[in-house]
Structures are given as C-alpha cells and as structure tokens.
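Lesson 9: reading folded outputs for more than one chain in a single document. The general rule is that every protein is listed as its sequence immediately followed by its structure tokens, and records are never interleaved. Here is the first one.
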Amino acid sequence: MDIEGLKYSIKIVHHAGELESELADGWSETTISPPAQAAPPAPPAQAMDQPAALDRQALAAQAHALGIEFDGRTTDRKLLERINAKG
C-alpha cells in the first residue's frame, strides 16, 4: 500500500496478545511515524567561485591540466574564472 509516496504493509491481528507481539517486532498501529530527530545543520559548502575554496597550488595544477596559461600576475580569482570557463 502506498500512502504519501511511502510503502506500507498491513497486518491483521485478532487479539491484544498478538498486537503486543507485533508491536514488539517493530510493527505500528498507524502509518504515522514518531517525529524524527532533527538533523544538525550541514556546514555551508564553499562555492567554487570563491578563491578561498582552492589554494593556489591546486588552482595551478588544474590550470596546467587544462592547458591554461597564467603567470604570477594572474590572480587566484581570475585563474579560477579561466578554469571554470574551460572546464
């Protein structure tokens, strides 16, 4: 049975003892699940358009791999723009 996009199974019990046994085995009397524990917020991911996301050596390695020419006057931000445009 599908309810709100989730799959459920139905089990019919005939007396209170059987109900208690099924509940102990993990069955529930309703389709309503107990409230989930709130997950801690994920740390924000650094965007690739921020030079701090990669250090200069990593940028240089990517630029060399892509055949991008640059020198010491090329800023990290400009190098990253060239990498993103080429890659």
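And here is the second record, again sequence then tokens.
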Amino acid sequence: MHSNSSSSTDPEPCDCKPLLSIAAHVLDTHLVPALERSLDNNEEYWSLKDRSPLRAYFDSHPLKSRRPADFFTPANLLEILKDHFWIHDLFEPGNGDIVRVGDSPFKQCFQTPTIYVPDLYNLCLPHVNIVQHHETRQQLKHAAVKQELYVEIPASILYQDPSARFWLPPVFNQIICRNSDISYPWEELRRLFTAFFTAPNEHITRLDTEMYAILPTSELADFFHFKHIHHDQVLVLIKHLTKYLGKTSTMLTLCPKLKFTQCKPSDPVIFWIENLIAANHKHGSPNTLRLTLE
C-alpha cells in the first residue's frame, strides 16, 4: 500500500512517526511474508472422488480425526497419509522416504509394492478432484489463512501505540499508581513508575542517582525476588507486571493524515491486520509470585 503525500497547506502531521516506522517494519518483515506463504500453501484444493479406493479406505476408518475434510490441500492429504503409514508401520527402517506397502490397504489404492514419499502427490491425483471453481477455492483459501496465520510480532509496536491499554495487578496498581485508573496506556505507566521510584516513599529508598532498594518493610518485598533495582530496569519491571488488554484505535484512525486509496479506516481488513499484530501479546495474567528480572 502507498500513502498519499500531504500538501504544503496541511496542518502539522500527527505525532505517530515512531509507531508507523515500527508498523512498516512489522508489515514488511513479518506479516506480509507470512501471509504470502500461507496463501501459497492454500492455493490448491482437492476432494476425494466418490468411487476412489482411497476414499473407501478413509470412509472405513473409525476415527474422523484421521480422515481428510470434504475439501483439503494436497499437503494436508499427504500429511494424513503419512500419519496412516506410520500407524500401519509401513515406513522403511532407516529411510523415512520409502513406504513398504506390502499387503496393507494401500496396495489396492496405489497399485505399487513401495512408495517413494516425494512421488505421493502424483500417486494421489487419480483419487481426487481438483477444485476448479474460483469462488469456492477463494473461500477455502481465505478461511484457511484466517485460521492458521500466526505472526510473531515484536511487542515494541504496542508500546508505541497510544491507544493500547495495559492492566496492572491490583496490589501494584494501588501501591505504585494509587489506583488512578483501571488500565493504562504505556507512556502513563512509564510516568507513574518513574515517579514512584524517584520520589521518597515508604516502599523504596534511593541509594544513588540510578539505584533503588526495596525496603524490607514494604509489601513489595513479598512479591519481588530481588532487593535492588536499577533505573534502566524499571521498564523491564513494567513489562513483567502488566497484561496487554487491547487497543481502542486502528493505525488509520490514530494517524488521520495517513491515507490509502485501497481501503478506509473502517474496512474489516484494517481490524483484521491490527488484531493479528496484537494477537500474540494477549497473554495471561502476570506471574507476580516472587518475581525475578532474569
């Protein structure tokens, strides 16, 4: 996607350049390559022919979980077949690319005493119908991509997003943030934690300009498996203690000057991309039992 440039009469751009820089990196190096691989892997779909011996074999199998679906990719069928070869102990010892068919049910299916696994695709072709209908194939492909696509996204994109909200366990919310809110944006947490550690209080004593000690009488001493913390570790502590809840805006609503001819801020694809980026950061509650910073 290419954004339209602003004219010289436009007002000052929004303060989201760091977020956009990270987002562009995530799209280029994580999301787009993963999406392209998933689309390629789901390009072709098959269905078993009604009178195929291979279909008869699968229909007779007692476990539905070990049968292909009504429509499937070649790779999916090949993985299921290899699973069945393993169940029947048909693989050549010491050579996982050779299947000794023998008198197994696959003898009638493939009409060969041995199978070279890389040839399995071509051996399956007489038993399948290749889905040709474009709309059906697109529906199957999009459903599969939506279900299987997972992208490991760096958490830094969340910390730059002003609409992202983070939850803090009640004891720390009370002591450090004085229950000023239920959830917080990242910059607000940074401000509150920094203020807590740098100002004198009944929980922390400042040893020098960058080193703090947790007082043994503090309630925090019951949760932390350490007695000292450096100024540079405060952000690490926040990351350990918080839980990402979600966000209230998309990239296009956060940055109104960012325009794309291909889509609008309210288009479903925008929410899908945003949710995909954040999905692997919706982890469980922080572990605050004797927390370490290792």
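What the second record shows: Residues 17-33+153-279 form one domain.
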